[in-house]
Structures are given as structure tokens and as C-alpha cells.
Amino acid sequence: MTTVRLPLFPLNSVLFPGLVLPLNIFEERYRAMMRELLKTPEEEPRRFAVVAIRDGHEVAQTAQGMPDQTAVPQRGPTAGFGPDPLKAFHSVGCVADAATIRERADGTFEVLATGTTRMRLLTVDASGPFLTAELEELPEEKGDEAGALAEGVLRAFRQYQKRLAGARERSLSTGDTELPDEPAVVSYLVAAAMMLDTSTKQRLLQAPDTASRLRDELKLLRSETAIIRNLPSLPASDLTRNPTSLN
């Protein structure tokens, strides 16, 4: 088993391969992480791992922007994640490549990263200024009938978008050229674009292969479309107005 050690960035959301992740960095632990990543030459990937939080808080409870600024602040790399951060995170996440890291005058950062490959979290190290993790990168197996399933998911996704957007709004997809046809890419795009809770998105991320993910998505799309059909007042998501960026 080949493993790699990378900085660890926990979020209250799921990152999928191929999807763009904008970040506004203001906590010191993540600012330290960005400063470390900036030491990597621009021509090399500036990689870190993103995991969804199972139990804990993305931002420390008394960090900048939180309501109670008079409380004793939680500090350190594990703030908000309890004494054993490994238990606070889902075990499967995504490696991200920070294409852009811009430091502002106040020391905060604006970051634009892209998900690259899935990974499994093995251990978490909290001995430094930010969390690092030992990871096992997970290959994406195609599975049986992935191509046919991708076609069905795309058709169902268009119907889902039309229902979500409503009769007077332009749906996300107006033609075949706007959506990919490679099964794995389809599976990740649809998983990211659907209005699903974090646990369901996490289930899709850690599917054993592309075909399994697509089968799950087909069931979800049909179910969600039926719900929207019966609840015409359901508010539309911004995802129906702006294309999801795969970059």
C-alpha cells in the first residue's frame, strides 16, 4: 500500500475530484498551512487533503466571525474536533491542488483549489501548527455498465434541473455540449450539483466504483425529481443558474 502525508483541511462539505473549491482562510492554523504550501515551487502541485467533518466544527467556536468573541478562544490544530480528530472526520476524502494562493494585506488568504483524487484517511497528526494526515490514494474503478448508466444519469439530471429551476427559469444544461460524457466525471459532477445532505454526498464519494455511484445517483435523481414535482413551491438552488465549474 502506497501512502502519502499531506496537510489536512476539514470542511463541513464534501469535495469531489474535478470540482473547484474556493476558500477564505482566516484561522491561524489554516493560514500556517497556506504559508507552508507557498514554499512549494509554483510548477509543482500544492496539495492538501480535504475531508468532511463527521463530528465537530469547521471553524473554532470562538474564531474570527463567531458570535461570542468574549469567550476563551479554542486554539491549536485540533480546535473544534475533540481529543481524537481522526474520529471526527469521515474516512474517505479528496486530495486538492491549490492552483491559486493569494495572501491579503491582513494576513488572511484567498485560495482556489481543485479536487484531484480520492483518498482514505489512515492517521492524523496534530503535533504541528496544523493537522497533517497519512493517506492512501484510492483508484477509481469503472465497474460494470458505467457508460450506459452515465447516459441515464445525464437524462435524469436534466429532468431534475428543469424541475428544480421551474418553468420560467433557464436550466443549467441547455445542450449536450455543456455536460461531460465520461462516466467518472459525470458521477462526480452530478454528486456535487445535487441538493443533498453531507452524509449522502459522502456516501457517493466513497462508492466502490463509478458504476455503483451512478446507480445510486439514478435512484436519487428519480426520487428527488418526484419530490420536487409534488412540491412546486420548493425554492430553486443557485446551482440551476450557474454552471458547475469542473475546470
UniProtKB/TrEMBL annotation:
Domain Lon N-terminal: 6-225
Pfam families: LON_substr_bdg
Domain of life: Bacteria
Designated name of the protein: LON peptidase substrate-binding domain-containing protein
Organism the protein comes from: Streptomyces hokutonensis
